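Re: that backbone. Tokens:
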């Protein structure tokens, strides 16, 4: 498997990179190599999982699948590139659904939810707020007690989508947060481990550090408690009326033909039964493997967009 890394501006992106010639009347899809976009830098949980997924998809599809990293805006930079691609089906994005459900609502974007077809979901994301090993708090309640005398906290996040949530919390609790962006979990982790960040949002990278005690999960950002960290309460249980529930999905441009979506969907369903994908997902990054069809995702995401829109409208910043 080959990997590449590119960095281009966020909004005015040159889509000539992989537009190529659209696959018109392609009755043998795929007939050439494919590209998986990952909207974060190498080394995080999406990358760890994606490396295994491309191996399985290459076998299922009979063509090589290469990874291209395009970090920025919590997956939004990659989504903007994908939305403008004419290389339908041969280029797809893998990562958190938040890049499609909330990112276009919080910043100017060249795409919206209906710019894409959601092929399938393969993993329930397990986002969490975490802390490092040397902080004087190990629970959310202890963090709030600590913040009474230390309201200036450093918060690091590889996402853009969670900032409305953390700012709402800061407003309610009287916190003075300094928010540091990271290009992915691999950039978030060193700041937490060194103590430079008091708290952070993690999409799954924390699973590599919790057994050793180098990271501690304070709260689940999903709708439910995290499968592998059941002692951490959800935000709703703590009295905050919002969440950051997400699914790891494969996404293609809206005009991708039905047959190509079907072929990709079947390959992804097979991947969710593959022991290699199950091992890396459930044992290494500690997320439950699921299979959600495009139809299921369309309904879920439409509802989430309305919830996120209301959260943003209710915010005072």
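Recovered sequence:
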């Amino acid at each position: 498997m080959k990997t590449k890394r590119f960095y281009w501006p966020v909004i005015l992106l040159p889509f000539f990179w992989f537009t190529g010639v659209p696959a018109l009347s392609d009755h043998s899809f795929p007939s050439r190599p494919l590209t998986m976009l990952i909207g974060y830098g190498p080394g995080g949980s999406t990358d760890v999982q994606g490396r295994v997924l491309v191996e399985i998809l290459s076998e299922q599809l009979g063509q090589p699948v290469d990874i291209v990293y395009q970090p920025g805006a919590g997956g939004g930079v990659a989504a903007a590139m994908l939305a403008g691609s004419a290389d339908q089906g041969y280029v797809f994005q893998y990562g958190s659904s938040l890049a499609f459900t909330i990112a276009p609502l919080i910043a100017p974007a060249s795409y919206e939810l209906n710019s894409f077809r959601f092929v399938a979901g393969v993993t329930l994301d397990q986002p969490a707020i975490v802390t490092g090993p040397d902080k004087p708090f190990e629970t959310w309640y202890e963090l709030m007690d600590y913040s009474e005398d230390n309201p200036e906290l450093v918060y690091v996040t590889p996402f853009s989508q969670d900032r409305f949530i953390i700012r709402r919390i800061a407003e309610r609790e009287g916190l003075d947060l300094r928010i540091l962006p990271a290009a992915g979990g691999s950039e978030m982790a060193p700041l937490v481990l060194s103590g430079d960040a008091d708290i952070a949002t993690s999409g799954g990278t924390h699973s590599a550090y919790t057994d050793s005690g180098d990271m501690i999960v304070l709260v689940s950002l999903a709708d439910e408690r995290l499968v592998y960290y059941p002692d951490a309460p959800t935000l709703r249980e703590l009295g905050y009326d919002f969440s950051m529930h997400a699914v790891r999905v494969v996404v293609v441009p809206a005009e991708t033909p039905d047959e190509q979506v079907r072929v990709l969907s079947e390959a992804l369903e097979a991947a969710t039964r593959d022991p290699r994908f199950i091992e890396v997902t459930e044992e290494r990054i500690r997320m439950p493997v699921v299979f959600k069809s495009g139809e299921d995702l369309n309904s879920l995401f439409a509802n989430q967009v309305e919830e996120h829109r209301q959260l943003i409208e209710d915010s005072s910043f």
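Residues 294-314 form the longest helix (21 residues). The chain has two domains: 3-21+31-125+246-314, 128-220.
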